[in-house]
């Protein structure tokens, strides 16, 4: 588990580049570097949580600039805690509904919004394809990771598991924990009928189950428990959303002048 903190265009981010193939750029935003006010201060990227739309638009513009794309090329979907994977290779704009985004294009930056759920990045070994997935307990139970992996060779794909709520903070009832009763170490007893669920353990288990080499999986050390750096829905409601954002870097084009 590791963390690479840096700044991108004035935005504090977790840089995922050390964990992925050359040719792909990916970061996790924090809650800092934006223009929002409490309780959404300051880089809220979610337009569905009650924040001022103009503020969200400006925050997304800043993330777009940090990733080197136009605001219209920062792609977000309406996330519904399901397992739909959206292939954006032939997307020409318009609303999207789903919890994972895939592309081989180099003119788009894909973004998944979270505030405790697990953001997951998938990268082909040559960097030719990328995907991002939103994996809360419902998405994990629905199979969003397995669905995303159908676009890759599971034996060679690189995966980064981003910041999410820790098991010590994620108390659930049996109606949730029973979905993961067969995952070793994922569920622990708490008070009464409450359980503590480790979404990271479930994520890693499902990746292994799908054939992903553990040596190709990197887990970011930071958790969303620390609301000084990330938004956490469990810690404060309402709250904003941070993002895992990824894009393929455009291939360098060399133009030779007349000699």
Largest sheet: 6 strands, mixed
Shape: globular
Could you name the CATH class? Alpha Beta
The number of helical segments is: 5
Radius of gyration: 18 Å
Q: Provide the succession of SSEs.
A: EEEHEEEEEEHHEEHEEHEE
Summing up helix and strand content along with how strands pair, one would put the structural category as: alpha+beta
Beta content: 15-25%
What's the total number of strands?
15
CATH superfamily: CNF1/YfiH-like putative cysteine hydrolases
Low-confidence stretches: 253-259
How does CATH name the architecture? Answer: 4-Layer Sandwich
Helical content (DSSP H or I, runs of 4+): 10-25%
CATH topology: CNF1/YfiH-like putative cysteine hydrolases
End-to-end separation in angstroms reads 51 Å
The tally of domains stands at 1
Spatially, the strands of the biggest sheet line up as 1-2-3-15-7-4
In round numbers, the mean pLDDT is 94
How does this structure look, described?
With about 260 residues, this protein is of the alpha+beta class. It has one domain (about 5-165, about 220-250): CNF1/YfiH-like putative cysteine hydrolases (4-Layer Sandwich). The chain contains 5 helices and 15 strands. Mean pLDDT is about 95; it is low at about 255-259.
């Amino acid at each position: 588990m590791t963390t690479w903190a840096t700044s991108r265009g004035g935005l504090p981010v977790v840089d995922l580049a050390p964990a992925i193939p050359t040719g792909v750029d990916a970061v996790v935003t924090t809650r800092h570097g934006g223009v929002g006010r409490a309780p959404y201060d300051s880089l809220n990227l979610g337009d569905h949580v009650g924040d001022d739309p103009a503020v969200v638009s400006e925050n997304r513009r800043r993330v777009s600039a940090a990733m080197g794309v136009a605001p219209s090329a920062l792609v977000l979907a309406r996330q519904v805690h399901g397992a739909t994977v959206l292939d954006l290779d032939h997307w020409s704009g318009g609303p999207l509904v789903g919890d994972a985004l895939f592309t081989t294009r180099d003119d788009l930056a894909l973004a998944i919004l979270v505030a405790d759920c697990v953001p997951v990045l998938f990268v082909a070994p040559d960097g030719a394809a990328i995907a991002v997935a939103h994996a809360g307990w419902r998405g994990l139970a629905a199979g969003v990771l397995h669905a995303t992996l159908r676009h890759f060779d599971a034996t060679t794909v690189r995966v980064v598991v981003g910041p999410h709520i820790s098991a010590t903070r994620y108390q659930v009832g049996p109606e949730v924990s029973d979905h993961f009763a067969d995952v070793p170490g994922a569920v622990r007893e708490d008070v009464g009928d409450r359980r503590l669920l480790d979404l990271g353990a479930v994520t890693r288990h499902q990746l292994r189950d799908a054939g992903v080499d553990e040596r190709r999986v990197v887990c970011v050390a930071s958790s969303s428990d620390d609301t000084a750096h990330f938004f956490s829905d469990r810690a404060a409601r309402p709250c904003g959303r941070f993002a895992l954002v990824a894009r393929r870097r455009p291939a360098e084009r060399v133009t030779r002048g007349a000699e």
